[in-house]
Amino acid sequence: MARRSLLTALLLATLLVASSCASLVEQFEDLPRLTEADLNFNLAQSSIIYDAKGRQVTTLHGEQNRNIIALGAMPRHLQRAVLAIEDERFYHHDGVDVRAILRAAVSNVASGSVTQGGSTITQQYVKNVIISPNEIAERSLERKIDEAALSRQLERRLPKREILRRYLNTVYFGNGAYGVEAAAHTYFGKTATRLNLRESATLAGIIRSPSNYNPIDDPQTARRRRNLVLDKMRQLGWAAPAKVRKAERQKLRLKPGASEARYPAPYFIDYVKRLVTFHPAFKKLGKTTAQRTQQLFRGGLRIRTTLDMKMQQAAEDAVNSTLTSANDPHASLVAVDPRTGDVKAMVGGRDWFAPKKKNRFSKLNLAIAAEPGLGCKRIGKKCDRRAPGTGRQAGSAFKPFTLAAAIADGVPLSKIYEAKGCASFPGANADGSAWEPCNYEGGTFGKISLLEATAKSVNVIFARLMLEGATKDDDGQADRKRTDWSVCELCDETVETAHAMGINTDLQPVPSTVLGANPVNPLGMASAYGTLATNGVRRPPVAITEITNSRGKVLYRAEREKEEALEPAVAYLTTTALETVIQRGTGVRAQIGRPAAGKTGTAQDYRDAWFAGYTPNLAAAVWVGYPQGSVAMKTSCAGTSNCRPTRIQVTGGSWPTEIWQKFMKRAVAGLAAAGFKQPASGFERVVIDTRDGCLADRFTPAEYREKATFAAGTAPEESCRENERIARVPDVMQFPVGDARRILEDDGFNVDVVEQRTSEFPPGRVIDQSPGGGRRAKLGSTVTLTVSRAKTQPKRGTVPDVLGMRRTEAARAIRNEGFKVRVVERKEAQTISSGRRGRVWKQDPSGGSKAPYGSTVTIWVNPS
Question: Could you read off the pLDDT of 767-783 as tens digits, one per residue?
Answer without folding.
Answer: 999 999 888 888 778 89
